[in-house]
Structures are given as structure tokens and as C-alpha cells.
# Entry
Amino acid sequence: MVSLPTSLNDAVAASQRAVSLDAAVVAKVTDMAGDLAVNLAIASVILVATIIGAKWASRITRRTLSKVRGFRHDQTVLSFVVQVVRVVVYIIGFIAILQRLGVQTTSIIAVLGAASLAVGLALQGTLSNVAAGVLLLVLRPYKVGHVIDIGGVSGTVQRLDLFTTQMSNADNHKIVVPNSKVLNDVILNLSGQRTRRIEINFTVGYGEDLNRTRTVLRKVAEGHEKVLPDPAPWTGVTGLLDSAVQVTLHAWVKSDDWWQVRADLMQGGKEALDAAGIEIPFPHQVAVPYGDGAVMPVVTVRTVEDSGRDDTDGADESADGEQG
# Structure
């Protein structure tokens, strides 16, 4: 039988071991919490430094490239390179944060390498946009500020990103097109050249003098200050329509003046033809009865003289009525 003092000594020893074990656990937990707090604090500092560093690197890159002649007047390449620099800085900072938090980045890279096929299939659209953006940057079918048409959607290029091309149309609507769609579609650059040709089709009656009509329209183009003398304005008969002859006017202008000059020539041509007494026909509708009656016009064209005559007749009838 075990004596009481022996049992008491064993209990005291066990309690001492338990207390020492608890103290070791508490010390270990305290050390881990302290390390975690320090690592979180350092990771936060790295995050803030990454954000500030990305902005600083982007600003320095933009300032440096702006001094290079090849990038000074090409905002497309400049904005693209600045964005790449910003993304690279963010990636470096993210890896540094993971390492500080104790994450083994080598194991992450190994996992990503093993799952590269799945990641590639999942991100094939995004990666294709990046590849298309690089090709667009190399081929340079358009620049920032150019007016382009992609698949029937036209607008002014605002910026070329890693994934998309951003445009704004005449109504100031923001248009975002994936780079892969831009590269795989037909790109119509409306302002890629310094000069553009204006084409306006006028119609005149079959009984009009066509040579005189062409001379009138050509003088309108030659008299506009923004129409270029070389190539000279051209006019010619380009179509025999059902009820009119089509006469086309060609004039060359600078790309920036295209819209306004086109509107001016269209208005000036119409006014010049009216002043020369050259008829610009328009469709008429007639009603054909089923019986033997004559053809009855639905639309009756009244001239100023007819309106004045009708007003005079109405005034005379009113005067007669008052006298009666």
C-alpha cells in the first residue's frame, strides 16, 4: 500500500509539470501572436509601399518616356507601357507580402505550374486580350485620338489597355471593346490619314443642263476656303435614277475639317442649284382610279405665285360679300 506522503509528492510533481507545460504553451502562443502581429504590420507597410511605389514608378515612367521623341506624340504606347510598369510593381509587392506572411511562394509557383493547363483554359479569353493588346501596340493600326470603326461601331480612341480598347462616340458614350475582338475584326481608321475625300451625291431633273450643273457644284467646292486645291474638286454624272440624274461632287479636305466642310458643301450645293434655277426633283405620289377617270395627284405643289393669287382671290370674294 502506497503511503500518503508518497502520493502527495507525486501529485505535487504532476501539478508542477502541468504548470510548466501550460507556461510553455502560453509562451509559445504569445511568441506566435507577437510574430504574427509583427508580420501583419510589416505586410501592411509593404502594401502601402507597393501602392505608393506603383504610382511613383508610373509617374517616373511617363515623365521619362515623354522626353523620348518616339513616345512624345504617341499616347497609345505611352499609356500601355505605364500600365505594364504599374502591374509589375503590384505583382512584386504581392509576392513580398506573401513571403512575409510565411506563405511559400515556391510551392505556389509549383501548384500554378502543375495547373497551368486548367488556368490557361479558364483564362484563355483574358490572355488572348493581353496578346491582342501587345500585337495592336506593335502593329499600331490606330493611335489615341484617332476616329476608328470596328464592326460598325465608331468612336474616338481614348486609351489602349492591357485587355480593352476604350472609345467615345459623337454622343460622348463610352465604348469598351475587347482587344481580341478589335484584332479579329475589320478596323476602319477614319482619321489615320492627313486628308480625306468628301463625296456628295446630288440629283437633278432629266431636262436640266448637266454640264452647267457640274460647273455650279464645282464652283461651290472651289469657293470654300478649307477645300484643298490639290487634288482639285471633281464633278461627274454617276447615275441615271428612275426620276433624276445623279451628279457626284468630290472634294479633298484635311481630316479634322471633314465633317464641317461636308455639311457646308451640301448646303452650298443645294442653294447654288436653286439660285441657278436647276430643278432638284423629289418623289410624287399619284392615285390611279379603277374606273376611266383621269389620274388624280395626291400631292399638289403650290408655288408662291399661286399662294399670292389665292390670297388675292379670297380678298376679292370677301370684299364682294361685304358689298352684297
